[in-house]
Amino acid sequence: MLLTGCTSLSGTGDQGFVSGDGTVSEVAAADRGAVVELTGPDLDGNQLDLADLRGKPVVVVVWGSWCTPCRAEAPDVVAAANELAGEAHVVGIDIRDPSVDQAKSFVRRFDVPYPSFYSPDGKALLAFRGTLTPNAIPSFVVLDEEGRVAASIIGKLPSTTTLVEVVRDVAAGVSGERRDG
Question: Coil, helix or strand for 133?
Fold first, then answer.
């Protein structure tokens, strides 16, 4: 069923998956793993490559047009992307949408300013093994300037401010601390 894993409730699914509650997890620079490699088509069929975005933090937004929490948080995600313009890159991964037209409709409706990988089978999430599960939607991964996982938010975004502060912490080399404000 398409809506598997898309919920605002926390619980254990049939495959041992625990849905996220929006908790922020940060990874100290010394503990970050390998660079995340991901290339694939965007919603227009053009190739996207995370390697082209290195040098600044990258926010990876996992979404689907069918996902109720994704639609609810879209204005906050768009606000964060706009606030972070020039400081970080933002790229989406659209999963489980059976047609690119549905995804493009979502992008138009919410005026999404960033490109998205089109991954109807969800295989793009494999690049984030150990951070994201196949049912990790909505979710956010923040890559450092080298392309390594520096933070994640699994589940609905708590707020625009939360995402912006996490990205700025990663950019500043701050890990495990929250900024006031």
Answer: coil
CA distance 94 to 73: 15
- What is the spatial distance between Cα 172 and Cα 178, in angstroms, rounded to a whole number? 12
Q: Are 132 and 152 in contact (CB under 8 A)?
A: yes
Helices (H), the chain: 68-83, 100-110, 160-172
What domains are there in the chain, each with its CATH number? 23-172 (3.40.30.10)
Name the residue type at position 65. S
φ/ψ (deg, to 5) at 162: -60, -50
Instruction: Average the pLDDT over each of 8-17, 53-62, 134-143 and give the range with the smallest value.
Output: 8-17
Q: For 31, how many CA atoms within 13 A lie in the half-sphere containing its CB?
A: 8
Determine the Cα–Cα distance for residues 56 and 79; give it in Å rounded to an integer.
19
- Residue 76 zone, left/alpha/beta (φ > 0; ψ -120 to 50; rest): alpha
pLDDT at residue 100 tops 50: yes
For β-strands 116-119 and 89-95, DSSP reports them as parallel
| H, E, C per residue of 36-68 | CCCEEEECCCCEEEHHHHCCCCEEEEEECCCCH
Phi, psi (degrees; rounded to nearest 5) at 158: -60, -40
- The predicted model scores a pTM of 0.86
